């Protein structure tokens, strides 16, 4: 890529950052200021590699204070673990270079495996522990007595950067995760009201699909922010439970609204008033200014609508040809009203938290899905790539190849668990390549001629402020972060800088080659298929539903909702850019929430004394059949009789007994059947 193309790419990228917000400017200026403070402190402490302190600020920089603290905390843990590992490995195996690089490669594979099983920011810390051992261990090659000094220096530089980033993010016009959660939850509620308004009025399917996707994405972000907020302030701990429960209620309300849209109700006297009241309520909620300042009026209206929907309509009332269908839709409408009411109460709980958590209402621990096949693939790939490049380094004796080994280890481990690691790594390469000419101009031309910290500030601030604005923009965050980190790495700011282009270009070339080799590894060695990982999560969701059908212990509704949210949270990044196919999987995941809740309703009803024993036996037989369907039917295979049986049972129950409890059972059976008909492939076992 020529200089003109590089310049054009940079200008195009900046053009996409039109009209940055006040929050973006605060983030950019705060980040650059923290980086300069860290560098100045590193100069004062006479650290060997002061650029690492400034680089750390940009590595952990995030718009929200809690995210900075979380990433900084796990970066510190990862650095300490990697430093200890480097000391141990180098001390024991440092006399034999081939054994040393082999053990380091195995260590990177182990850390990549652990990282692939964890979530951010824990995953980041595990990956960092792997390649930090390589960063510390390779420079000590042949000089094992230096490894302790290198580890201590690296940890000191990292700690300095983390402290500067954490303090500035928390003290200088902070954007707090707790405030961001409340703000995003409000937007979710308004988006849900907009979606529901369109669903109840037969809105445009394409528009509703886009809103559906956005809402699922926002629930994922809410879940991530919850963890950051707890690190940001221990006082947020009592509010962590309402956030998780509210996310489950959001998904329940979204699923109910989707079901009402997919199965438009016939016009009858029993259903029209409830639907009209819901449509009017969500319409007002979505359009009224300051609607969420006081939730009490909305909660009262939702209570009234829910109560009306749960009243069994009189048999003499005109309900069309399908009384059970009417009851089913009324049940879904009541579930939507109840879920939306709980979401509003969750918002109130966040704005006015309890002084201490209520021990008796704690949620059970989530059963987190662990993708062991994917983690094993990532571990083998990272270890093998590192070992092969290290073998090349030892064979050729090319001194700059050590940098290549390190970059291969970093990229192949850090990006291994991403849904599209090639795309992410390519963005990292573009940012690195773009940083090269700017680092050369500043570090090799300007700074040797005009030394001093003041001139350094004058040269780098006009470069790093626009870069930090790019880091605040989700569209450019990957390239901009890579640019910032590698600009400082190439620049390698010291108090006395000299013109020496030979080592500069040799080191830069080793970095670029290392990134390209890592990309090649992602493409050629055990290439990742996001759909395989997505299918494993979908299979876990079907197994969750099967356990609900068969397990003797019936879990609480809130526990299942939390579990279902957790699965969707893992599924979202894998399929969100897959078009209609991805939308179908996400839609099926949200529908699975509805199916699970109806299974729980059937289990609760079958254990009661208000229904005949033959009905309880029929429910048990149906749930066993449903479990077989979920576990054994493959996509494309004809559906078993489960859906037909559900409809037949529902019709038979309604004919034999018109009591409210029996009609609710019939409605649950119909809801399950409808969800499975809407997403037949989601509720079928994958053939892989």
TrEMBL record:
It is a multi-pass membrane protein. It comes from the Bacteria. It is found in: Cell membrane. It comes from Rhizobium loti (Mesorhizobium loti). This is Putative membrane protein YccC. GO terms for molecular function: transmembrane transporter activity. The keyword rRNA-binding does not apply. The chain crosses the membrane at residues 27-45, 51-69, 76-93, 99-118, 123-141, 147-168, 379-395, 401-417, 424-446, 452-469, 476-492, 504-526. It holds the Pfam family FUSC. PANTHER family: MULTIDRUG RESISTANCE PROTEIN MDTO, P-HYDROXYBENZOIC ACID EFFLUX PUMP SUBUNIT-RELATED. Its main location: membrane. GO terms for cellular component: plasma membrane. The keyword Transmembrane helix applies. Keywords: Cell membrane, Membrane, Transmembrane, Transmembrane helix, Transport.
